[in-house]
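Q: What residues go here?
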């Protein structure tokens, strides 16, 4: 690892913080301290990482090389100033895809964005070697340090400014969160008729695998792509949930290129 980053503090103990901490540990990179507002979550992650813990902003160690702030977007403006107070001489980064660099405000402390673009859950470890990390920083030197640090986890490291990252995050919501919600709707439909969702997994896997060779538009299939209105109408009659029915209809119109 770059000689610039030896002492690391993780602020937060959620899904991303947990996966990142464990990924660092697997690379032989020790996290010195974990901060969380709740004792239970702070203790749980600190124990997994072999780190110290604190639930107090006053208890955050000073003089670390890197403070990784991985908390809810809505509290960044509250948490960041408290961390910046502890970080003179170090670097403070947040991990939020949709929050601009400007959230740090006017500060002389080196700062940046360290955004691993992936869906994270505490129950499942993610292989960081397979994901992309997007970085942005307050100055060139800090950006170089963050790039070097990121390369300890993956070769897929990219510089991306706040404006472009906003669009990246919107796209990620479509391909991950919205797609997963469609899986949830399908699961509800299947469960109502005693069909296991697992029968869909080969279809999901092939849908994603095709994208290695074809663009999303080229790989589109189904009744809307064929403009098979009879099948679409039949499906709409089968869907009991009004919201799910609306989603089906809007998605079908979008696939067919119908604006209204």
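A:
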């Amino acid at each position: 690892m770059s000689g610039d980053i030896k002492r690391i503090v993780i602020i937060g103990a959620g899904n991303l913080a947990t996966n990142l901490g464990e990924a660092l540990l697997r690379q032989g990179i020790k996290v010195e301290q974990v901060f969380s507002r709740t004792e239970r979550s702070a203790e749980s992650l600190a124990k997994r990482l072999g780190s110290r813990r604190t639930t107090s902003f006053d208890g955050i160690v000073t003089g670390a090389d890197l403070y990784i702030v991985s908390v809810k977007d809505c509290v960044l403006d509250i948490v960041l100033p408290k961390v910046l107070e502890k970080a003179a001489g170090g670097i403070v980064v947040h991990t939020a895809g949709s929050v601009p660099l400007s959230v740090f405000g006017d500060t002389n402390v080196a700062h940046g964005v360290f955004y691993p673009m992936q869906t994270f859950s505490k129950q499942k470890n993610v292989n960081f070697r397979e994901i992309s990390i997007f970085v942005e920083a307050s100055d060139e030197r800090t950006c170089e340090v963050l790039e070097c640090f990121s390369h300890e986890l993956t070769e897929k490291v990219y510089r991306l400014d706040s404006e472009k990252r906003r669009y990246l995050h919107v796209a990620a919501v479509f391909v991950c969160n919205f797609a997963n919600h469609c899986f949830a709707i399908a699961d509800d439909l299947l469960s109502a008729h005693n069909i296991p969702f697992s029968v869909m997994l080969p279809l999901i896997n092939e849908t994603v695998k095709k994208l290695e060779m074809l663009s999303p538009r080229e790989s589109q299939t189904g009744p809307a792509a064929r403009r098979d209105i009879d099948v679409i109408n039949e499906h709409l009659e089968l869907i009991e949930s009004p919201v799910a029915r609306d989603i089906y209809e809007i998605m079908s119109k979008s696939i067919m290129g119908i604006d209204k």
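A: Context that may help when evaluating the design: The chain has a mean pLDDT of 95. The radius of gyration is 22 Å.
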